[in-house]
Amino acid sequence: MEQYKKEFIEFMIDSQVLKFGDFTLKSGRKSPFFMNAGGYVTGTQLGRLGEYYARAIHDNYGLDFDVLFGPAYKGIPLAVATTMAISRLYGKEVRYCSNRKEIKDHGDTGILLGSKLRDNDTVVIIEDVTTSGKSIEETFPIIKAQGNVEVKGLMVSLNRMEKGQGDKSALVEIKEKYGFEANAIVTMAEVVDYLYNKEYKGNIYIDDEIKAAIDAYYEQYGA
Predict the structure, then answer these.
(1) What are the pLDDT digits (tens) for 153-182?
(2) What are the CB-based long-range contacts (under 8 Å, 24+) for 188-192?
(3) Reported pTM
(4) Strands, DSSP E only, in 6-163?
(5) Which residues are designated catalytic?
(6) Residues 6+ apart with CB under 8 A from 197
(7) N or C, which end of the chain has less CB nearby within 10 Å?
């Protein structure tokens, strides 16, 4: 596993973004782990988060794209932080773009904020986590409605590796339905492999009990 992935797993723990226990997801599924990117709230956290995304985007897609698109609302700070990190780490300028939930009819009008999308732009979409792929159903038509725009891929922070709307994972379903790659900084399998029965800062976050709960969860919902 790449060093930045190990650091990112520890970063999620330190930021209290990745938690283990008993959670009910928006989908209604009972899950032994929960990831909430809303926990990244400080300038230092957002700066580091952008760098992890930048490295993962560089490794999976390269830097031959024009726009980083972050769907409203959580995708907005992700897109901003990551475009800054790409500039800082690689000296590459990409534009950020996000959508609004409501179309603005005065001033900076339209459904987009940040950069407009232009014909022949290549776009990478950035999100926190994709469980069912429903957000892409909303985002993809907005992007394609702006003109002759190519979506190169989707990058999320954590691949939960569970069924989306069918029997395959959400990221696989996205690739099959929309024709672009979908990747994550880390997968849940990498998280489990790295943390299982390993002490980190005095705590064991995935002990035998949590590991058994995760295994049972994947028996039911795993892709």
Answers:
(1) 999 999 999 887 788 888 888 999 999 999
(2) 188/33, 188/158, 188/159, 188/160, 188/161, 188/214, 189/161, 190/1, 190/5, 190/9, 191/9, 191/18, 191/158
(3) 0.92
(4) 18-24, 30-35, 67-70, 95-104, 110-114, 122-126, 150-159
(5) 104, 106
(6) 204, 206, 207, 208, 211
(7) N
